[in-house]
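Progress report, Aim 2. The chain analyzed during this reporting quarter is listed below.
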Amino acid sequence: MDQFESEGATVAEAVEAALRSRGLRREQVEVTVLQEAASGFMGLGAKPARVRLTEKRWGDAPVEPAPTPKRESPPARAPRAPRAASPRPAPQPETRREPRPEARPLPQREPRPEPRREARPEPRPPRGAEAAKPFSPAEAAAACAKAQGLLVELLKLMTVAAPTVTASWDADMERVKAVVESQDATLLVGRDGRVLESLQFLATLMLSRGAEAPIAVQVDALSYWEKREAAILEQALNAVESVKATGRPQRLEPMDAAMRRLIHRTLAANPAVTTGSEGEGPWRKIVIRPRQA
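Predicted structure tokens for the chain:
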């Protein structure tokens, strides 16, 4: 019997890829799982799923059953003699029905007066959120130093080869910007920057614990976030030009909260447009509208 192996992100994807390459259907093969997929720790040590497919061999064609003999139709019966028509009953005289007395209308009930509801006092509007104080130079320097130490410890736990972390304060976005250099930088970027997102999520939680205000941390490697932010800002500026030309709102592609915050801050001082967000979860996106005069 023919056997062949295949790999994929999951067992189902590995089987589907093998069937597609051989032009077979699922019922034509037997599947043996050689290795289950493993995601590893934060993208490191990931393993694909591996399967072995064995093509089934079918036996001789089944013998067709002998045709069943046709049944002979029974002989036709002689027609029955027609029955004599029964005499119809004599018509009876019609009886007149007296008209029913008209139904008296039911007395209508007077509507009950609605109970008077006492006007409740309107709830007091919530106090306006105080504007967040900008970080002082001393607080920014302390946040950068703490973030650098946290990231070095996290990278050592991940067995990243010789990590070097450089942390600086991004005053425009009010965040710590940490750049990681290592031989394993490509593993840190991972698929679509997911490992970097996990790192900066952990660093933000650990750095903000016990602080008066949350401190955002961006972890970058191989200029991944720098290139992506430049591409996102270019799309936003092109949308601004389209809004100016047509007067119609423009919607950008869904993006995470950090990228939306970047566009909001960048276009906040633009006199021609305003920005907003719509949608929920992973489908939340930026909407750029013309500013009302």
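Residues 137-222 form a domain with the GMP Synthetase; Chain A, domain 3 fold (CATH 3.30.300.20). The CA atoms of residues 138 and 155 lie 26 Å apart. These observations will guide the mutagenesis work planned for the next reporting period.
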